Amino acid sequence: VQLVQSGGGAVESGGSLRLSCAVSGYIDTMTCMGWFRQGSGTEREAVAMVDGDGSTTYAESVKGRFTTSRDNSRNTAYLQMNSLNSEDTAIYYCGAASTCTDTMQHLEVWVEHWGHGTQVTVSS
Fold first, then answer.
1. Which residues lie below 8 Å from residue 55, measured CB to CB, with a gap of 6+?
2. How many CA atoms lie within 13 A of 103 on its CB side?
3. 102: helix, coil or strand?
4. What is the C-alpha end-to-end distance of the chain, expressed in Å?
5. Can you say how many angstroms the Cα of residue 73 is from the centroid of all Cα atoms in its chain?
6. How far is CA 55 from CA 31, 39, 58, 119, 120, in A?
7. Rounded CA gap, 121 and 124, in Å?
8. Given Cys at both, which of 27, 82, 115, 120 links 5, Cβ 3.0 to 4.6 Å?
9. C-alpha–C-alpha distance, residues 15 and 105, integer Å
């Protein structure tokens, strides 16, 4: 199983970007797809997750600005990021987890496959 990320790049504050995470190889359509980020000098944090049935959960820091979704027919998950600010600057990773969790903080331990990461830079 491989997770191939695309999207990201540089944008001005207030702008938008969309990340994609394409899964190759067999993966259960009920697998939880999570999005994580790691800024310079910070620990990796989970920001969004989407369950196999499309239900979503977000970290407070991105709620109302980020939207995650998935297209099971394409084995692809998406992270739409709007109203970006400099605090969103980070490397973003997607992860395929065996289960979604009740809280964002517990998701990472369930991730079985990781994307390679993509840089998002927001200039003020």
1. 100
2. 2
3. coil
4. 37
5. 19
6. 12, 26, 11, 26, 25
7. 10
8. 115
9. 27
Give the list of residues 6+ apart from residue 101 with CB closer than 8 angstroms, or none.
Answer: 32, 49, 107, 110
| Measured CA angle at 34 (ends 46, 28), to 5 deg | 155
What's the pLDDT score for residue 26?
78
69-98 per-position pLDDT tens digit: 999 999 999 999 999 999 999 999 999 999
83 touches 109 (CB < 8 A): no
Residue recorded with tokens 């980070």: 90
Q: At 78, which helix (H) or strand (E)?
A: strand 76-81
